[in-house]
Structure of TonB-dependent receptor:
Amino acid sequence: MLKTLSLFSVLLSTTAFAQDAPLPDAASDADAGSIVVTATRLATPLDQVPASITVLDKADIDRAQDMGVTEILLRTPGISISRNGGYGTATSLRIRGAETDQTVVVIDGVKLNDPSSTGGGYNFANLLTGDISRIEVLRGPQSTLWGSQAIGGVVNIVTPLPEKDLEGSFDVEAGSRQTVSGRAALGGKTGPVTWRIGGQTFTTDGISAIAPAAGGQEKDGYTNRSLTGRAEIALAEGVSVDLRSYYSRGRVNIDGFAGDTQEYSLSRDFVGYAGLNVALFDGRFNNRFGFGYTDTNRDNYDPTRARAKTFDAAGRNQRLEYQGSFAINEGWTILFGAENERSRFRSVSPPASLSAPIPEPGRGKAEITSFYGEVKAQPITGLTLTGGVRHDDHSRYGGRTLFSGGGIWVLPTGTVLRASYGEGFKAPSLYQLFSEYGNTALNPEKARGWEAGVEQRLMDGALSFGAAYFERTSTDQIIFASCDFPSTLPICFIPGTTISRFGYYDNVARAKAHGIEAHAALRPVEGLTIDANYSWTVAEDRSTGASTFGNWLPRRPRDTANGSISYAWPFGLTTGAAIRWSGKSYDNASNTTRLDDYTLVDLRAEFAVSSTFSLFARAENLFDEKYMTANRYGTLGRSIYAGIRGRF
């Protein structure tokens, strides 16, 4: 740290500045004139990011017409999901074969996770496209910038800020299974205040969470209400305040493993952020001081029991952070920051009988203090190099230092060469540490990964294609280990008691993933767009001595492919089609339960009635393909939706 402070003092004394420092804010809106990435914590042009990344702007989101974020992410390379039924049921997203809780999700600069969940990850079930203006998927280990969980990658979600004195938008649609969705947003600029609020309501009768082939018959409905808000207040030249919030409340009917039940689940998510931005030295030195807060509550009910509530959990995060960026000289920028995150959880499963007392809830808390820095340099035209370091001090397992580095070279021929190396870690979740199955001696999961890729652009960018190869090794992965009964092992008893337990969490697993991601896009004539991608992801269990050594990790297809075509007709009609193919996978670690491959075809159309209003319609799973992403759980069949969209 002394060396870092000494270097920073030298940088402050530099008199030859040649550029402004990029804004150090993962919620910054993209420059309308170019593709700018903020998942890197700096507003960075896409051609200066060495890691593989996909950027979906508002036009992409509108064109796809998907209601859930997972559906639109599935169209991008390296992504797979599994869901326990229809909309609103537990949804797991995996990047490059990593575990679902090894993905960092960020909304308007605030890192999300659920400290009360088993793995501490984020459940995508309630995340609808809503008022989202941009989605970025940064693939590969990214913990030097984003800390714990960023082993598979980062999903960065940004909501918009208005550009006019008053502007608004809305989408209303309805369709199969009594599905209705309505969204509206309004914002503007009033003196020093720029503001925007948005809301969405979604309801559907749904499908049976348990597939009909496994005995499911009743429909399991889902409702969701969400609100978003952002405001920026300019206090003085170079000084501003940011306020951001997100709230979601969902209710979904669920089934037990044995079949249909009357059970349902309630969930509530709140995200809040307040920050102070200070720009010094004519914008060469940008600073952000922020406080982020997340609060997640989950409750399950079974109306057939005397005591209806079957599960009660709550998790909270509080994060204090400082982040700065400094323009050293033309093409040279340094990013640095410090964070303190405090997490706590509570969970309990009340017994069915009213005469049985509710046990004391499991509780726990942890704290991580972090320091990080990254240097970005452009030594010659077209070449960008980055190097980063991070140190985390966890209240349970002590310190951990990580490194990353990479480079991207854009040649005059339109060739783009990328290579990067990154390290990741995931702190044990509070549930894994302190629940009735907890183990306070757990170490963090660790990962190292690298990738190299090339892209070629021809015909003034009308044709582009490329591919990337990646590898990642994960060690000390945490799994649930079962206890024999009876057992004399001390770890097979609830800590501090003589009560035996079914099992405990331990660091025993090892996994390895490698693969290829290829993509191509063609715009041969005005209005016509054709794109495709293919992912080959080999994710295997490499746990030494385990009977599952060499097996596929569960619910991760090795082969996936996406393709789409869209044409904007001269009279205002846009039509398109999309196809997704997913190869086989296995539902369990022993690879004895196979999930078959499947192909889904979607059609969509949109007609611009005026510059303000448009009508749209789509057919999803046109050929009513029967498939599963999790064994015995249902998936949506053929679905038809139509609606109206307004932008003013």
